[in-house]
Fold each of these.
Amino acid sequence: MAIEKRFFGNLDENTPIYLYKITNAQGASVTLQTLGAGIQSLCMPDRDGNLADVVLGFDDPKLYTDPDYGYQGLTVGRWANRIRDGKFTFHGRECHTPQNQGSWTLHGGGRFSFTPWEVAETGDDYIVFSRFSPDGEDGFPGDFTMTVKYTLTQDNVLRIEYTVNSDVDTVANPTNHAYFNLSGDPNKTVEAHTLQILADAFTETDASQLPTGVLSPVKGTMMDFTQPHPIGDRIDEPFRAVIDGVGYDNNYCLRSRDGSFAPAAVLADPSSGRKMTVVTDLPGLQLYCGGWLSRDYTVGKGDSLVTYRRGVALETQFYPDTVNFPDSFPFWYVKGGVPFTTVTEFRFTADA
Ligand code: BGC
């Protein structure tokens, strides 16, 4: 089935945002938006074949550009997650990145998420978005082009391939910030979803959620998702690396950290049977359950209220602030003139 394009809305009078919908033979579909090369909707079947949208979001592109609304479904670049004090040194060059949250950088400052991307190419089952970022933009080295290719396969796999080209050596940590609610009902919290993460350790963090450099075992703590169990079981337990009332917002150190493409997590919703397996070649996964989203938002898609803990983000990534731990955290950088690629898949199935 051919890709369908339609107008989504205007960011301002000169900035239209478009949607591109890919549908497979089973009727499953993904709708991507040019704003932030983002996922706007993802319709997947439950155990009876009923399709429902399994990602949170909005009906108006402008709402996506409010950082307090949580980067819903958007691509994050150049560097996902946190950079302490908005600075790091790379190949002897001191880089100063936006201190857009507290004293640190969050999600590269937000520019990659909150601006429109070019559409470089489309096919029946894929689209490629592209964004050029000049040397020094937001402090990062290199004339830098990122492309994001989304493919929806016939067997309900959403594949995301990020490719970076830079003229000189630089750093990149692209991710996607979709919030999944596999029940298809954004008024239900994700606490009844079961989760398994193939990780035996997590990055210890300080009071500002910045890594200390220590990797600690999950065993015996609320962080342990080595066996599948409901997210809500221990989410409100007091724990040193979790902010009270927020719940999980932590980076897991995946078992596979050598760049091989391997399963990272399995999320399942017992009520609908929908299940999603995350596969990636990156070494980390941020588990974030929407605990910073306000408890009283009154916006969402349709008449849904997008609120606290209504979605779970599983952000594949290099560990937060790796640019300040390049020798101790697993890391490979972008080599000048050599394409850098990373792939994440969200594979959907349904349990009987
Ligand atoms: C961060 C959260 C943040 C959210 C939305 C996540 O990756 O870890 O702390 O609130 O993104 O910006």
Amino acid sequence: MLQKKTVDDLQVTGKRVLVRCDFNVPLQNGVITDDNRITAALPTIEKLRKDGAKIILCSHMGKPKGEPNPELSLAPVAKRLSELLNIEVVFAKDDNVVGEHAKKAVAEMQNGDVVLLENTRFRKEETKNEDTFSKELASLADLYVNDAFGSSHRAHCSTVGVTRFVEQSAVGYLMEKEITFLGNAVNHPVRPFAAILGGSKVSDKINVINHLLEKVDTLIIGGGMAYTFAVAQGGHVGDSLLEADKVAYAKEMIAKAKEKGVAFLLPVDTVIAKEFKNDTEYKTVPTGEIPDGWMGLDIGEKTRALFADAIQDAKTVVWNGPMGVFEFENFAKGTKAVAEAMAALDATTIIGGGDSAAAVNQLGYGDQMTHISTGGGASLEFLEGKELPGVMAVDDK
Ligand code: AMP
């Protein structure tokens, strides 16, 4: 059970409610190319509208480094939100975020109206969690709701500082859903519990591996990070990704798995390529026998079957990180096989955000998973067992 207040615990009618969302969506020439993060925020916004709140939305986008940058304006998000909500979402286009436009728009709000503020990272105080900007944000509102799971691992003004200057704070439905799914999976899993980790670097996932070894029955490692483990087992990996300074750590983790009785699976075969591109010569070899001049870009056929088999009886599976360079079609087969195997399970299947979420959606398995997290970094920190500052800052029930 979540110990934090949620939107259901607030009396919002006629109140100004500042809602921190994660509208950090990909843009190409001012056009939003994936609006998943916007649609994910709708349940909270709609609930607040139904209850007659005055809703002031805020978010960051990209890394403007504390300065206004027209290319990272949230104006396209206001437009998309207007379409999705079927109302006019007023965009307060202040370069200083809480400026004349924002103040006027908020003063003119009726119950159920929605205003969107400009990119919070246009202000240099935002990422430093400085009180000046936190107070300005809070001055627009009576209540605060954090629904930005993807930003909740950062202690910024709009995720943490602002909570100190409003009457009450709560988490939104998206945040509640993320915490419930990820939290239950990791802390109260229905067993057998398997985790699958991939992606490029061991160093990004050191704490995740270490923490998950305390929790899982099976840990599967693929992707670029598997080669460091292959070297730890005495293998040769040619020109594959390798973090030589993490080989000792990989050895430690292999020993820890043994000690804990965790089934620890690494790729047994690898699809190797001459060059890092789709159209290049490729073939499959045993993982520890990659010749120089070749690099591993995907798990091989035997490994795909091995991994699928290893999760066959699992009742909870958490996956973070692709099995290969899925952006290249020729090397997407391993990632696809894992997505396919997970989709077929009668189990709780959870996809950590970032690349694995993109891969699952891109491969068309999105609606066959129990939960796809909207937060990459945040879900990783959750899997490390860390408490997220943006959640901690919210009022307890
Ligand atoms: P991460 O951000 O650490 O989750 O890593 C995701 C990235 O890892 C994706 O862009 C993949 O293309 C990349 N990746 C996965 N497997 C490999 C590999 N064998 N070699 C190089 N990059 C890989």
Amino acid sequence: MSVDLTSSYLMTIDGLPTDSSRHIDVINPATEEVIARVPDSSREQLDLAVSAARRAFPGWSQTPLTARQALVSSISEKLTEHQEAFAQLLTREQGKTLEYARWEVGGSAVWLAEFSTMAPSETIIEDTPEHLVKIRRVPVGVAGAIVPWNFPLLMAVWKLAPALIAGNTVVLKPSPFTPLTALKLGELISQILPPGVVNVVSGGDELGPWISAHPDIDKIAFTGSTETGRKVMESGSRNLKRMTLELGGNDAAIVLPDVDIDETAQKLFWGAFSNSGQFCVAIKRLYIHESIYDELSQAIVKYARTVKIGNGADKDSHLGPIQNAAQFGRLKNLLADIYNSGQKVLLGGTVPEAKGYFFPITIVDNPPEDSRIVAEEQFGPILPLLMYKTVDEAVERANASTHGLGGSVWSKDIVLAEAVASRLQVGKVWVNEIHVLTPYTPFGGHKQSGLGVENGSDGLHEYTNAQTISIRR
Ligand code: NAD
């Protein structure tokens, strides 16, 4: 059966399409038009979703792994069948360009397919004629998955795929700003999985706190801001929920003096501005050695001038709008601070009056280290370029953050670059590349960028409890 992605955005509770008596408007950020109305789940509806997941848990967790893997693989295939329709819907709700939306939908299908080949580990610790000791990985139970608005589909899949392979059932909540693709993913999954295994609920500001405090949810997988992550952790403590928290970042890139200027300028540009800078591991502070600061800054600005911002649905747009009015307002406030504190802007800096949350690519020239644009996570298309003298100084400044999500080092000298990279206090660090992510490599923040990881066998095991079986023969 195919899924119509153009209308009827309903929750999936216990396998059934479910509306609510209240609704939330969904806005296309490129036009500011209301493009859909989605259910605003009541507390009772959330309880129904959680109890459906609880009822489905024994059956799903006892389903043989190979059967669970085959079903997750079917979700991947079905998503691929609908790839173009999902991409168009994603552009309409999130704002990103169609090309980038296709990448996100395609990536989500790849993640499901790759996870469908993975399995929780079983390790033999001791095997003698007298004694057998092994460690199994058993599912946690009902997982609550809470997702942000920057990669609404991919972040949902990063949670669903490992949760299902490990044998858990799920209640998924998208961001109120971007619920459409997740609701349609729920509809698509309801054609494949038994009722109650995956439930998708949409709602406003109350729904996330209800989920993270729910006494019958055993684990929370959360992606969002550090501020919200703290609240989730606090409310999850009541029943000692397992937690994976993927939070904010303030990633530094360190550019050593020997790089190829033009080639690196382009890579750095996209490292900072992909998805209009609304990327947890975007370059948010760019440290450039003083000997190449002017040349590289000019090359980045020159390249940035060739990049067109527009409606993501238009073929010639390279970057779309900011996703929502609140984030748009936050960025305007940051920009005002840049001007009010007398910082120099090399490019951009004027927000157009037209409809749509379009924010210009803005490049700031060597602002002070304690300025807001350096100290805070901007999560948008404003990049501070920062001049450094010595590698030790650059590393120290890069590490002087409460965040520790990602980072990158750029140099022709791979040995030196790796040595610098290994000094960064972050969970993911790239050398001469950026945003290379795979289902097999753990992804997660150090310090206040998170707790635990997603992806890889470590990420899969976050949906399990270890169980030791010790047998005297
Ligand atoms: P957010 O924290 O505002 O919201 C994230 C999700 O949490 C949304 O679904 C929201 O409805 C829900 N929520 C809000 N308040 C809640 C509460 N009290 N309890 C439970 N849930 C609640 O984040 P956002 O603005 O949607 O996303 C942007 C942030 O996400 C940035 O800081 C970015 O760096 C971060 N992010 C991190 C990663 C990562 O993997 N580390 C990936 C993407 C985005």
Amino acid sequence: MAILYDSVARTFTLHTAESTYQMKADAQNVLLHTYFGPRADGTDFSYLIVSRDYGYCSEPAENTAGREYSLDYFPQEYPVYGDGDYRVSALQAGIAGQAPALALRYVSHRILPGKYDLPGLPALFSIEEGDAETLEIVLKDLYEEIYVTLLYGVFEEKNIITRAAVIGNRGAKTVKLSRVMSMGLDFPEGGRELISFYGKHTLERQFERKTLCHGITEISSARGTSSHHHNPFVIVCDRNTAEDVGACCAVSLVYSGSFKLQAEVDQFDSLRIVCGLNDNEFEWMLGSGESFAAPEVVLSYTEKGLSGLSNGLQKTYRENLIRSPWKNRKRPLLANNWEATYFKFTGGKLLELARQAADLGLELFVLDDGWFGKRDDDRSGLGDWYVNEKKLGCTLGELADRIHALGLKFGLWIEPEMVSEDSDLYRAHPDWAFVIPGRDPNRSRSQLLLDFSRQEVREYIKGRIDDLFASADIEYIKWDMNRSIGNVYSAADPGLSQGAVRHKYILGLYEVLEHMLAQHPDLLLEGCSGGGGRFDAGMLYYAPQIWCSDNTDAIERLRIHYGTSFGYPMSATAAHVSICPNHQNGRMTPFRTRGVCAMQGAFGYELDLDRMTQEEKDEARRQIRLYNENWELFQQGNYYRLASPYENPDFTAWSYVSPDQSRASLSVVYTDVHASAKPYRLKWKGLLEDALYELDGKLYSGTALMHGGTVLPWPECDYDSYMTVIERKN
Ligand code: DGJ
């Protein structure tokens, strides 16, 4: 049993392979958070909570415990606004028209087999009987019929605890929710650090580590998407935590819209983390009998350092979050025409590219933006999902058939959440776009957002997608989204609380994705938002891979991939070889290095294949062969960050090790070159100590490679690279 309830101490103890998590319903029925740390026994950890009469710490509403009891410094499981706790809260709500205030007290609980789900929202799931248990704890406001059900999913073996919260209005009066977080997590000791991943378009998920000081640190997005700018994934760790040692806790929100994560260090140096929906512009009216589910948060605690943490998360997301049948299949090596042609193509040019792709040994041809409506640049056409037969010289079905005849699968780009003002769809339904009445909207890439909170808009888009699938044999979709959400106003119901629209939009997006996948269960869906603007655990539930960044420069990708690897499977990280000078930053890198870098993730090519030199084609064939021989290692292996692009100015290195440790790869990209350079040594990780591995024709023991290391070849030019695969021989 991973979940234990002690009816005398009234403690709930959740055990995973490496951690223990504990709560306690105290004498006042307040649900305290008593422990989250290395695996321990069932001790009631509330002895660590010291009650004192601290100044300016108010007592809870019912005050049965006297002045030595205040929620202002007690560690709590789901802290609310308005009960004497002045720190950041997980929930701010109250009867509509009255001041928000809650006093939540424990009512009941249930322990259930399997993993709960959250209808309409992405969430982790069980893959076999007995791999997960659920704890449901019901709290109720002291005064009103407002209930909160806290949900916990414990994947013991995977070292994962999930959390979610469902707010229920069982009274007659409407309840106004103005802030709903999925969780609160109190750490009694401060002195922690926060690792988060900031960025911008073409430079997503940049690693940043900082000491948490007194006050509130916030990582959030108000862009309606999880965003390029901040990612809904952080790590809280000790000062001494490194790749292979130290305590660390992952907090990963399974949601693709505006989010907020706050870390507050309080007057007693305790740390509180809250994480959930961004409360900027959020307001949800909960009618009598209704409930509201906050998205899921995934937690994992380990003392094995960052490498142990991210490998555990990567595996869990590969197995228990990604639903696609493609999760364990070899991902097709693709050619995408975007950087090859942008909007300037004909059907003939596409077929020429596809022919070259087939000749190189690629498996999927993706037709990117520009095939529909009036779309020869990014100023028009979005919303008109009708093929431009004049441009293609044939129907979409015919093009797909010709591509299939070359032995390739056919994939298509779409951006269904958007509309151009210069489109038939906008002309017919201007009120389907987000525009605040009486104000001009902010345009971004000359496009507006379709109001996905509206049923009729979603039905229209579902219909258009169904028609596309009916018109051509499409095996892959790249679902793009090229602007931040703004000017949010739903014209559907002017009385509707506009503060609900952003979240309803995301629920609407999930509904449309669900529809498409239900109709086409074998579809390979790739997420995209101007590259990695919506690279989050929510999207992975639908899309087993996500275009990681619009930046295809191999060297900048080193940092992007490095950051992404902490929270997400590398198999989900789509990466392509592109042309040089690179289109985003003008850098020249060897073709070989571009392949080494792109092979870190879902691999493909995005350049004019017609214009490749013979030497490049030979190198591409070598890369494709290497990937085909090792795809299981790359898709399912443990991933080790061996040299950080932030700490090592000379090279970045990483390695994959197969789950049975019989095979491993080593990839190195040199980021600087020196005359009279010193020899570089690098230690492998994750191998079997006693096994003998063959490297460059010689046998080495696992201990030799891990403790002594490998001497790397000298780089021969700027941005040179090295990649090798070793195999166990005994
Ligand atoms: C942004 C994507 O990230 C690119 O790969 C490409 O699909 C363009 N959109 C097309 O407009």
